[in-house]
Amino acid sequence: MAQLTSRERMLRTINRQAVDHFPCCFMSFTALREKLGDNLYELAKAELGMGLDSMLFIPTTPRALRREHPDLRGLPVHFDPQVKTTEWREEVSGDYPLLHKVYDTPAGRLTTSVRLTEDWRFENRIPFVDDYQIPRALKPLITEPHELEALQFMLRPPTEADIAAYRDEVHVARAFVESHGALLAGGWGVGMDLANWVCGMEPLMFHMMDRPQFVDDLLEMIHVWNLRRMEVVLSAPVDIFIRRAWYEGCDFVTPGFYHKSILPRLKAEVDLAHQRGARFGYICSSGLEPMLADHLASGLDVLIGIDPVQGRRTNLTQIKKTIGSTICMWGGVSGAVTVERGTEEEVRTAVREAVQSLAPDGFILSPVDNLTIDAPQTWRNVEVFIDEWRRTWPSEPA
User: Fold this and answer.
1) What is the pLDDT of residue 394?
2) Same domain? 362 vs 269
3) What beta strand segments (E) does 134-182 contain?
4) What was the pLDDT predicted at 397?
5) Does residue 75 contact residue 229 with C-beta atoms inside 8 Å?
6) What pLDDT is attached to residue 396?
7) pLDDT in tens, 93-111
8) Is there a single domain that holds both residue 367 and residue 308?
9) Domain limits at 107?
10) Cα 381 → chain centroid
11) Same domain, 130 and 273
C-alpha cells in the first residue's frame, strides 16, 4: 500500500480499513501546545513534523478565553442576558478563605461556594463549570430538582455570532487539513461530566440512588442543549465529533443507570453525527468493561482514552476481545505515569504491550489522557515512545 496522509490513515483506521501502519495520534499534548502559544494549528503542524498523526480540533478557542468553562472545549457557553452574577470573598480565621457566587435568574437564585486553596487557579472568581472546582466546592451549584428551571437560563443555544464565527473558522480549518493532511475533529459533546460539574461528584452519586428522576431530568436538559450545539459543529462538516465522558465509567455510574439514562441519549447523538457524515468518538478512560455492551449498542465509532494504569476495569485484552471487531480503540499507554515519569524501558514495554493487546486493526496509539509536564524526562520519553511505535511498522509496504 502506498504511504497515506495522516488524515487518510486516521479515517481508514476509524473505519476499520487497511492502512500502511497503525497511527499514533496524541489525544492531548498540553506541554507542546503551551510552547506554541496555545495555537492548535501550530500544534498540528508540529506533531506532523515529529512524524506523528494529528488532529485539528475546532473551534480552537484557547483555554484562557473560555473563562466560564475552561474544561469544556468547543462553542462558547452563554447565559441568558437576564442572568446576573455576584461574587465575593469571605476570610476565615485559621482556614482557607471562601469564595461565593450567586446567579440570579428569572426562575430563581442559584448559589455555589468554594474553598480558596493555595493552588486555586482562577483568582477571585468561580467559573460556571470546571473539573478543578469540584473537590474544592463546599456548596455545588445544583442541589434540588426545582433548581433545574433556573439552570435552563444558563444553558442557552449558540448565538448567531457564535455560529458565524464558527463558520468563518471552518473555512480556515478545512483549508488547513486539506493542505497538511490532518484529521478535522469537532466537539465537545457532554453528558454526565456536566452533571458532575453542577452537582458535585459525591452528591450526584447519591442523587442517582435516591432521586434518579432528578438526575434523568438534568441529563435530558443537558442532552437537548448538547444536540443544538452539535448541529452547529456538524455543519462544518468535521471528520469526527468527540464527546467527553470521563465521568461515565463505572467509577461514577452504575451499569443499570448507564443503560437506562445515558445510553438512549448517547445513541441519539451518535445517530446525529452519522447522519451528518461524521464519525463519533467517546472519551472515557476508566470503568469501561461493564459498559462495553452499551458502547456497542450506541453505535459509537471510537473509544478514546483506554488507560491500562490509571484506569480501572480497563484490561486491554478484554476490551479488544469484546468490542475490537466493531469499535476502534484509541490510547493504550498511561501518559502521566508511564510517559511523564517512567524509564525508557518502561515506556518501550508499555508501547509493546498496548500494541500486542490492541493492534493492528482498529487501533490508534496514544498516551492517555495528556502530556502536561514540560521537563527533559517527558521529551526524552516522547522520543522513545515514537521510536518504539515505529519499530512496529511493517518492514515493507502492505
Assistant:
1) 86
2) yes
3) 137-139
4) 52
5) yes
6) 61
7) 999 999 999 999 999 999 9
8) yes
9) 84-142
10) 24
11) no
Cell of 234: 456538524
Return the pLDDT at 395: 72
Domain membership of residue 281 (yes or no) is yes
Q: What is the pLDDT of residues 153-170, one digit of tens each?
A: 999 999 999 999 999 999
Same domain membership, residue 217 and residue 91: no
Shared domain for 113 and 244, answered yes or no, is no
Kindly report the backbone phi and psi dihedral angles of residue 135, in degrees, each rounded to the nearest multiple of 5, phi listed first. Answer: -75, -10
Task: Give per-residue pLDDT as tens, 296-346.
Answer: 999 999 999 999 999 999 999 999 999 999 999 999 999 999 999 999 999
The DSSP bridge partners found for residue 55 are 183
- Total domain count for the chain? 2
3-state secondary structure (DSSP) of residue 270: helix
Q: How far apart (Å, rounded) are the C-alpha atoms in residues 141 and 152? A: 13
Closest CA relative to residue 130, chosen from 140, 143, 118: 140
Same domain, 35 and 183: yes
| 160 Cβ contact partners less than 8 Å away, ≥ 6 residues apart | none
CATH number, domain with residue 206: 3.20.20.210
For residue 42, give the nearest of 62, 65, 69, 14 by alpha carbon.
Answer: 62
H helix or E strand, kind and range, residue 380? helix 376-391
Q: What is the CA radius of gyration of the chain?
A: 21
Q: Can you name the residues that pair with 367 across neighbouring β-strands? A: 333
Cite the beta strand spans of the chain per DSSP E: 55-58, 84-90, 98-105, 108-115, 137-139, 183-190, 240-244, 279-283, 302-306, 328-334, 363-368
Give the three cell numbers for residue 221: 436538559
Query: Does some domain include residue 318?
Result: yes
98 and 203: one domain?
no
- Does 397 map to a domain? no
Q: List the chain residues with pLDDT less than 70.
A: 396-398
Burial of 214 (0-12, 13-18, 19+ CB in 10 A): buried
Task: Provide the whole-model pTM.
Answer: 0.96
